């Protein structure tokens, strides 16, 4: 195959060379890859921190970490995972790289703003590290609940400021994507011809743009409170601590949909390709993405059933929580129905997507236990919650991230990875995951609270099991990443379309040229029409 | 006394209902998924069908899942009202969270720390507040949990049907001593309780 020069060889401003061709680039693909390395670094760091927490909990009593250190580490684990990994991971890495390609254009609408978002993201990360080495890392949990976060002596303000800066990176990326989807689509691509991953990013971007300002304001208020002692949230001065919780969750609950929606989009891309069959219910999936974005913004106070807010509020928020479960269920049904009468080829990305469906279903269903008003009272703030949100955020978004890596890796780098090791690693991560988090459900039902560095003796067995599973999971994650990185030493010979995909990113060489397409991309009337792919592979004998 | 419904039963019923349904649902989804992947693998099923959706099927699963979700909501809400509706004449105890212990104050002025002593088969209402940051009182055996917030009065109630010791813990992260903020609910016979409550503080 003849190679047009890929974007790796053609800097986006032609005069840039070496490191500057990356640091000053406005090419959405290079920016996507820079996000990939940054988020990858934070992810692995936070995984190791999480491992430390579980190691401490494996045996009763204080073993490895002091109470203070444990509190700092779970705060750090949460802040890094949420603000530096899960929120930016899928939109900023794969969204940046593939959103313009999926809609048949050559870049985002504001390329310079895109670069600026990356710098804000990096700045936020640097400030977070700085807060660690200045005054002792904050020990408030990622939720920064007042009045504790106001009264503790550690460096909360700096950490809060880091989250504030990261919020701007997130908002600007959202703004950029919305504008790009509206203004830069291929002239022949109508709204209902947009691939589902891009649709999910569209829904996500609105939430990013509309919800993030609330947390930004709230975090500024926390800083104001700490520096000037105004008494906004401190009950001792007549402030309202519950008000803070409302403001915090008004962003942070929509934020979990910022995290999961792009993951659902990834799965909606992968399953049809390997079933070689149209996605089941394209319009229903689009509608459910938008429904999740809207309804998901109205359920924030289901984190607060025990906070002392009124029973009426509990009633309303519990009801809305069950409403938001419905569009998520529709997506799961549609994915499974897509497999029906397909021609299914097992590959690492499909395997990881099936693991996603399993883990995300568990996460979603346990969410119903937490949405129910009476049942939530018992399991709120226990290990049940810890397990639930790891099933959705890690089993969901994390596995979607892994699946996206394996799906788009050949497109991004032009190299295929070793399948055998990819499978072994995936099995280790999934198996480890189940043994890691299922015991936490049981611990939670037995009443073990979260954020405890030590526990009552009856919780010892569950914690030991969980630590053991966690070990396998961590080994699997590092094995998976190593396998992908080692593929970079291979020959760059991945075909333009290794899987038989139909979205536009597969209509161009791997890795893509600077302006994404060599000719005019052909937009399909229906975005998941596989008839041409089926024809092409029917003519070619297998193993070509 | 007999007409008081112990909310523990309501909460547990809701747990069984939601978790039971979830298991059925999960196994059905995963079974069908695995079956499709094996049955329609490319080596034995090389030509896929072209099915893009099915309106009736989609409408059906929207309504079925909406109905199940609604039933779960109702069961959860019933359990919640059971936890909130305090029976008349319940014995009242003041509980104050502070970093890092629980102060328990009885009507006759008796004050203890990290220990709540109650008579068996008597509804007990705990009036809860905090002296500093937010704490949360969690008694797993009675399925009750409520935040302790300075300047705000919250409550929980329970009825203990068996004598024994039940632990409670703080579940709202409050700092270094968070994990040590545990205590015991001691459920004793009426006579023992009367004896205990009238004894001068022995600590």
Describe this structure in words.
With 544 residues, chain A is mainly α. Chain A has a single domain, classed as Cytochrome c oxidase-like, subunit I domain (Cytochrome C Oxidase, Chain A). Helix content of chain A is 67%, strand content 0%. Chain A has 16 helices and no strands. Chain A has helices at 20-23, 28-58, 67-102, 111-134, 148-151, 156-183, 196-228, 241-275, 282-295, 311-339, 348-371, 373-379, 383-413, 419-446, 460-486, 531-539. The mean pLDDT of chain A is 92. In chain B, helix 1 (7-39) runs antiparallel to helix 2. Chain B has three helices and ten strands, in the order ααββββββββββα. Chain B is an alpha+beta fold. In chain B, the strands form two sheets. Chain B has a five-stranded mixed β-sheet with strand order 3-2-1-5-8, with no helix packed on it. The longest helix of chain B is centred in the first third of the chain and has 33 residues, at 7-39. In chain B, strand 1 and strand 2 (101-105) form a beta hairpin. Chain B has two domains: 7-84, Helix Hairpins (Orthogonal Bundle); 91-198, Cupredoxins -  blue copper proteins (Immunoglobulin-like). Classes of the chains: A mainly alpha (544), B alpha+beta (203). Chains A and B meet through helix 3, helix 8, helix 9, helix 10 and helix 11 of A and helix 1, helix 2, strand 7 and strand 9 of B.
